[in-house]
From TrEMBL:
<dbReference type="Pfam" id="PF00817">
    <property type="entry name" value="IMS"/>
</dbReference>
<dbReference type="InterPro" id="IPR050356">
    <property type="entry name" value="SulA_CellDiv_inhibitor"/>
</dbReference>
<feature type="compositionally biased region" description="Basic and acidic residues">
    <location>
        <begin position="24"/>
        <end position="33"/>
    </location>
</feature>
<dbReference type="InterPro" id="IPR043502">
    <property type="entry name" value="DNA/RNA_pol_sf"/>
</dbReference>
<protein>
    <submittedName>
        <fullName>DNA polymerase Y family protein</fullName>
    </submittedName>
</protein>
<dbReference type="InterPro" id="IPR001126">
    <property type="entry name" value="UmuC"/>
</dbReference>
<feature type="domain" description="UmuC">
    <location>
        <begin position="40"/>
        <end position="135"/>
    </location>
</feature>
<keyword id="KW-0227">DNA damage</keyword>
<feature type="region of interest" description="Disordered">
    <location>
        <begin position="1"/>
        <end position="36"/>
    </location>
</feature>
Length: 543
């Protein structure tokens, strides 16, 4: 059984007694009058975007994974997992080059909104450990905390730091934690320190000594600056700080001078704690516990109206309601309701919200009666055209949006989607399904002058399968070999093709020969022969 890791504490060794030439010991009064230096802690999550991706996709843990700057073969690798680095994938490499080394590499960008949501979640978790937390803009995934004054609530500094690290582990993140006295040193030690246990330093001298031994490679310097310092024989932060400040600016540039000033403590900035605006929240006790949907909806009507008024104070509009139903001796049930457009504190808007909530409750499985309901309303600054509610003649897009909102409330957020085009050479990758958030009128194109002739031969409508279906090996003498798929009836009487699709040299070789196969029953299948894999696949059916 592995021994639990304990925080590492560095303390000055006391000197007992006095020696020759040693001055008298200061009395307790002198010691109490010298103020203790202010404490500062830093929590750093290494490769933060990669950790966010693996937290969202746990099935990728242990596999070669990379985070890209943008989608496509020319996207730059920003972060790579250990399995990918072992096989040669490095930061700054193009996605095409990385996949040439690791064909099965999973590479994708992490959108900014996902990173922002993860940062907000971490900030809320860290605020439970300290009321003063400041997120670091560079590097992303680092936070400074004020640990002072929490001893009576959360124990001494090693205990507090250990609890902080356990909170981050419970959220699924690996983090380095350092408790010291200055911004740059705690960040450097948290980045370079071991992830096995927090690092708690007892004095500024200890901090300076430990930070001076941090390798420059752990600070993520620019490649040009790091290469220049390596040529000078400087490999640690202490060696860099030993350079004269004036010479650093003259010989290495303003960026190196700014780094030298921050690392040397000459640029001191007080902690700027972040402030979170908690959304309006209302709770309703249900006594005795009840699981009848109609009675629950009736009980929630007045709190929902009150929540709508609170959100709309100051000109905001309601965009989402999060409902948490605390069950009797069971885990809570959590659901959300999103209207088609931002809602105001109007009777019609309240009726629409109640209708959506009723649909969501009808499809919610409750393992036990509800004893408490918590409503949280999320608001946003609505545009003037969203609040105008002008109803004109013709198509009512607002009514269509409300109808789709009801469908989402009844069947889930992914129930309403539409196809969006993508630039890809393979047919199955040339489009993707995305949620519909706004209803728009279709774009009408003018018919050509010879539209009668054009309509005589309408375009082919292919119904693609979600994945190409492997077919048994083709036998020229067996006319029913395609019927084994279960999607096409009868014997094949005619085949048209091949139509070559090739490419993918930057990731995985693709070489397909596409055919149209017509059966005796009139079914037309769209299939291809995969040359590198020597196999037939059914890709779709013509309607």
């Amino acid at each position: 059984m592995a021994r639990p890791s304990l925080p590492v504490v560095f303390r000055d060794t006391p000197v007992l007694g006095g020696g020759p030439g040693r001055g008298p010991e200061p009395d307790s009064k002198d010691r109490s009058e010298s103020p203790a230096p202010a404490r500062l802690a830093c929590a750093h999550l290494p490769a933060f975007p990669l950790q966010v991706l693996l937290r969202r996709r746990p099935e990728l843990r242990g596999a070669p994974v990379a985070v890209l700057s943008r989608e496509g073969p020319h996207g730059e690798v920003l972060w790579a997992s250990q399995a990918a680095r072992r096989r040669g994938v490095a930061r700054g490499m193009r996605c095409a080059a990385a996949r040439s080394l690791v064909p099965e590499l999973h590479a994708e960008p992490v959108p900014e909104d996902i990173l922002a949501a993860a940062t907000d979640e971490l900030l809320r978790a860290l605020l439970r450990r300290s009321p003063r937390v400041e997120p670091c803009a560079d590097p992303r995934g680092a936070f400074w905390l004020d640990p002072s004054g929490l001893e009576r609530l959360q124990g001494d500094l090693p205990t507090w730091a250990g609890g902080l690290r356990r909170d981050l582990e419970a959220l699924g993140y690996a983090a380095g934690v350092a408790v010291g006295f200055s911004r740059f040193s705690t960040l450097a030690l948290a980045r370079h320190g071991s992830l096995a246990a927090p690092l708690v330093l007892a004095s500024p001298a200890e901090e300076a000594a430990r930070a001076g031994a941090v390798p420059l490679a752990a600070l993520d310097l620019s490649p040009v600056l790091q290469d220049t310092l390596e040529k000078l024989g400087i490999s640690t932060l202490g060696g860099f700080l030993a350079l004269p400040a004036a010479e650093v600016r003259t010989r290495l540039g303003s960026a190196a001078a700014a780094l030298h000033a921050r690392a040397g403590g000459r640029e001191h900035a007080p902690l700027r704690p972040a402030e979170l605006d908690d959304p309006p929240e209302l709770a309703l006790e249900i006594d005795p516990p009840d699981d009848d949907r109609e009675r629950l909806l009736f009980a929630l009507k007045e709190p929902l109206a009150c929540l709508l008024r609170q959100v709309c104070i100051g000109g905001d509009a309601l965009v989402q309601v999060r409902l948490t139903l605390e069950l009797d001796h069971e885990d809570p049930a959590v659901t959300t309701v999103e209207p088609a457009a931002p809602l105001q504190a109007e009777p019609d808007d309240l009726l629409q919200l109640l209708d959506l909530l009723r649909l969501r409750l009808d499809n919610l499985v409750l393992a036990a009666p509800v004893k408490r309901a918590v409503l949280v309303g999320l608001g946003a600054r609505a545009r003037a055209e969203q609040l105008a509610l002008l109803r004109g003649r013709g198509r009512d897009l607002a009514a269509a949006a409300r109808a789709l909102a009801r469908v989402r409330a009844a069947f889930g957020e992914q129930a309403v989607t539409r196809a969006a085009l993508r630039s890809a050479h393979l047919p199955e990758a040339s489009f993707a399904w995305e949620p519909v958030s706004e209803v728009t009128c279709p774009i009408v194109h003018d018919l050509p002058a010879n539209h009668h002739e054009a309509l005589a031969a309408p375009p082919l409508c292919r119904r693609l399968l979600p994945r190409p279906l492997p077919l048994p090996r083709r036998d020229e003498a067996d006319e029913h070999w395609l019927a084994a798929s279960g999607l096409v009836r009868g014997a094949v009487v005619r085949m048209a093709g091949p139509y070559r699709v090739s490419g993918g040299w930057w990731a995985r070789e693709v070489e397909r020969d596409y055919y149209f196969a017509e059966t005796v029953h009139g079914d037309i299948a769209w299939l291809f022969y995969d040359r590198p894999r020597d196999r037939w696949y059914l890709h779709g059916i013509l309607d």
